[in-house]
Design brief:
The protein has 415 residues and is α/β, with parallel strands linked by helices. It is built from 15 helices and 14 strands. The chain has a seven-stranded mixed sheet. Bound molecules: pyridoxal-5'-phosphate.
Length: 415
């Protein structure tokens, strides 16, 4: 007899879903209200917010708000209708693609409706069953899901381990000699949990020994790294060696959508073959016009990135000086590592939110090993040094309570 899918779902709610009853609306699906920025309303009270990837503070920038409002009034959200290939192309889409190409130093660009879908679909489009994918073990879900669609072999290398990457490239090289396929290496510019940069320069150097193409997901790098905000490759001086560059609008741009940049012929191939774009409606015009405005501000207001780094450096230096462990971050992503159980971590977060009015994200098992708690802070250009100092002061208090065992009680965090 066949299993009833609904019955199975009722019994097994999934790794995070199993906690839904206890956490929905508070630890999961919280509602942050008010203008997007460092101070937002959570459950009716203003909280200092470190959980949004609004790196450059563009979400509530007056020029951005004005451009978004005017574009929505002028075009509405219906336009353009249809997929780009059929009826949904516009001069604005093409202008944005040209400007993005210049920004990330590539020949051409294709816009995509979501970052997640862009990466997944581009991987699916670029490889065939004879090819081998070699990818970092801690890759984002959109890479993993793209790899899952791949019909050929895939070899994973240990996170940021160049020796292992080389080993996997050796295996891949042997295999493609038989299949007649090619090799696609996939990694990230910035790993969003630990905040460490992908070792792009070292991977690019491996091209001297192996034949492969390099795909980089630079969701957190675009706008935050590189002399002109062109991303992690620009930061490491190896942008040229990145063959396929992915950026999202969901972080520094404070918008929605994403893009893939590469050689002209590769982008043309993606334009005519990438299933998520040829079979889906184009990005609405207000989003495209809004992205153009944001890109203009990134180019003309370098002080946004400077301020982001001023806050990032103050936060990371202050945390280290006060004895906190922030691991190997060399980007704006600031993880604060602590030791404790899952009940302790929920009590700690509850205390932090309710008694210190600080809102940040928490990462626990199974995302990180059992017994580890990560409080993940995302600085932005619109935080202040006072925000930084207050946070470090409060963190010192809560870590003292954690070490004293005060969060062991399971009474505090009933939400
Ligand atoms: C590394 C990475 N890649 C891709 C994405 C997906 O981008 P989007 O939110 O635009 O779908 C994210 C998160 O949003 C990310 O952190």
């Amino acid at each position: 007899m066949a299993q009833d899918i609904f019955e199975r779902i009722k019994e097994n709610r999934g790794p995070i879903g199993q906690h839904a009853k206890a956490s929905h609306g508070y630890f999961t699906f919280p509602k942050l209200e008010g203008d997007i920025g460092p101070h937002m309303i959570f459950r009716g009270k203003k909280r200092l917010n470190w959980s949004l990837n609004n790196y450059l503070g563009l979400a509530n920038h007056p020029e951005v708000r004005k451009a978004d409002t005017e574009a929505a009034a002028e075009f509405g959200f219906a336009a353009p209708m249809g997929a780009r290939m059929m009826s949904g192309n516009s001069n604005y889409h093409e202008q944005l693609e040209a400007e993005l190409s210049a920004f990330v130093e590539k020949e051409d660009t294709i816009l995509c409706n979501f970052g997640y879908q862009a990466t997944l679909s581009a991987i699916d489009c670029l490889v065939d069953r004879r090819d081998v994918i070699v990818y970092d073990a801690e890759s984002h879900a959109c890479i993993l899901d793209g790899v899952r669609l791949h019909m050929g072999k895939r070899y994973v290398f240990k996170h940021n381990d160049i020796e292992d990457c080389e080993k996997q490239l050796e295996r891949a090289t042997k295999l493609v000699a038989e299949t007649g396929g090619g090799i696609l290496v996939i990694t990230e510019g910035v790993f969003g949990m630990r905040g460490d940069q992908g070792k792009l320069k070292e991977i690019v150097d491996l091209k001297k020994k192996f034949d492969f193409r390099l795909f980089v997901d630079d969701a957190h790098g675009i706008g935050t790294l590189g002399a002109t905000g062109g991303g992690t490759g620009q930061e490491q001086g190896c942008q040229d060696g990145i063959d396929i560059y992915f950026g999202t609008f969901a972080k520094s741009f404070a918008l929605i959508g994403g893009f893939i940049s590469s050689d002209e012929q590769v982008v043309e191939y993606l334009r005519y073959n990438m299933r998520s774009q040829i079979f889906a409606k184009a990005l609405p015009l207000p989003l495209v016009v809004g992205a153009l405005k944001r890109l203009e501000l990134m180019r003309t207001q370098p002080e946004l990135k400077e301020n982001l780094w001023k806050i990032t450096n103050a936060l990371q230096k202050g945390l280290i000086e006060n004895g906190f462990e922030i691991g190997e971050t060399n980007t704006c992503v600031t993880p604060v590592y602590m030791n404790g159980s899952i009940p302790e971590s929920t009590n700690l977060i509850y205390d932090l939110r309710e008694n210190y009015n600080i809102f940040c994200s928490m990462v626990v098992y199974p995302v990180v090993p059992k017994g580890m708690i990560i409080l993940r802070l995302i600085p932005t250009a619109v935080h202040t040094i006072e925000d930084v100092n207050y946070t470090i002061e409060c963190f010192s208090k809560i870590v003292g309570k954690l070490k004293a065992g005060e969060y062991m009680s399971d009474k505090i965090a009933s939400v």
